Amino acid sequence: MAGIREGQGQFVFGLDIGTRSIVGTVGQLEGNKFHVFAQRAKEHETRAMLDGQIHDIIKVGETIRQVKEMLEKDLDRNLTDVCIAAAGRVLRTITTFVEYDFEADKEVTDEDVSALATVGVEKAYEEFQKVNDTDMKFYCVGYTPMRYYMNGYQIGNLEGHKAKSIGLDLIATFLPDDVVDGLYKAVELADLHVANLTLEPIAAIQVAIPEKFRMLNMALVDVGAGTSDISITKDGTITAYGMIPIAGDSLTDIIVQHCLVDFETAEHIKRQSGAQEMVEFSDIMGLPQTISSQEVKELLASSVDNMTKQVAECIRELNGDKPVSAVFVVGGGGMVPGYTEQLAEKLGIVKERVAIRGQEVMQNIIFDMENARKDSLMVTPIGICLSYYEQSNNFIFVEFNGNRIKLYDNGRLSVADAAVQSQFSNEDLFPKRGKALTFTVNGKARMVRGVQGEAAVITVNGEQADIYAQIHNGDKVLLMPSTMGEAAAQELGRLPELSEQLHVYVNGMKIDLPKTAEVNGVRQNEFYQIQENDDIQVRNSYTVQEVAEFLDMPLGGEIRVNDTVAKADTRVYENFTVSWNPEEAYQEMAASIPERETKAGQPDLQEHMTTVQEPQEPMPENVNAHPAQEQVSSADTVTETAQEQSDEQTTVAEDNAPKEIYVIVNGKAVGLKGKDKYVFVDIFDAIDFDLKASRGRAIVTNLNGRSAEYLETLKEGDVIEVYWKELEKK
Predict the structure, then answer these.
(1) Is 107 domain-assigned?
(2) Is the pTM here over 0.70, yes or no?
(3) Collapsing DSSP states into helix, strand and coil, what is residue 417?
(4) d(CA 531, CA 704)
């Protein structure tokens, strides 16, 4: 009875609702001793129960009432609460393993262990649903942690340890809804309230196998009237539960047919045959008869052989296809002569290690009453009482998202348990990340995680709560599913590789060039949004032409890279030196214009050089000052004046005749004439600007507030800026 901690001094009413009879026990725990104050039993008057299942709720309820009233009379007190146990005939178990990885080593808390068990129960339920071949709805009525693991190694207790991963072997038990409802309704008919519900194998093991013996690999067989319930212990815990649907009643039925008696008489013959040589009885004709215990033994031999064979096979299956070290047998069905010997033979162990357990395991049970029954039939009823102290279990009803659900109360029910019972998706309990973005950078896979969503919103009775919040009978739980965050997104320029710069030396000056990238073979700017499965190649070089374009300088003359003659498409890498003559580049650029125009039938370069000059003739009378002689105070005024003059010229000139336009260069009006059209480089013939005065500086050429193309066509009133810009020294 180690481990019993709560409810000391409280009266407990335990009821063993069996196939053949109902046994009631009332007692009290004082220290480590359980005192039995009263016990009563009554057999069913009809076959109201078969194989551990209630078939007639009303008749079973009436028998329960009669047992309760007898106990109340013995004790001279009213009984309102009762502890019961469900038979293993419909018990289903699932053993599973679950593991959880932390992001980093952390100290394991009680909440971590509880969360691990919750996930384990959910996994067990999912696995059970896959093998559930019935239309019945099953409930998880409890689970037993078998083994804990820390970082892959078995450990006794996880709490308080630092771990990267934790794991759990868990056995979960399930019962169908109609079994539980039948038990509850029968008890309610007797004006009793269920205070605790356990399983018959668990109840029996409370008494039959003390905790100090559970380190051994043992089996407990509770041979009742309708079922033989089996449980296995090893390493200090219960490792498996099982059942075969054959027990004492199947033997009684054989005697009924052989002796031509009713079931009650046959049951009497079976019980007495183990206690005396000859048993007297009357058959259905009223004639007196006798039968020897040896004849009964021979009559039942084949059935006992079959029963023990099935029990042995079940034990082996539950124990990893091998026999256990010892077997304890309880229940009336196991008292049949020859049962223990045949079970030992089927298991292949010595017969002394299969024994009926009765009074010898009740050393901590004190019977404060006369004529107390202390045999193996009382093991399960007393175990039902002790289960109440071990852990107060019961079914409770709560409202979950508007639906009434039933939960097996193990004393630590939480919102998570209600969610599992309602088949609420575990994914909807925790925040969900948006879709990840995967791509490759220089051939290596890269992933950007999606944004974390919002956690589930939980309230219990209107109060904010979390998944670990405890719930009780009648609670109202509302759980809004968690949300998924936004899908991952990233701009090309935010790649770490593009945050670096390429350092080169151009005409003796250190220049920082931003790295660029090609996406799926196409060069993209830094604002490009990376797409799923993009293939990104980060470029770690520039061509000489690209360097010149970045500096907004014309490329020409002799090009040298690392002091070696090169071309415009020569690649430039980290710390390379590049040089060319900007003066020659401007001259080459200027010389290329008349060549193209001559080919098109236009005047040659010499003609351009003589006609594109500052204007010498006076302005029209309506103009106050010639733009070339006086600096205008406003660019708008100059533009307006130039536009008026242009309009007058347009009305008198032919389409192909030379035109004169005015542009604003560095704040001054400059007139261009002698050509039918003008390009940007034409302004260098009309202004005083030395293209040879570079001295390591970069030229800035803007047209209407943006960078200009040298062959870009000019129009009346364009605003131009031309100046040298010092390069930043590193």
Answers:
(1) no
(2) no
(3) helix
(4) 36
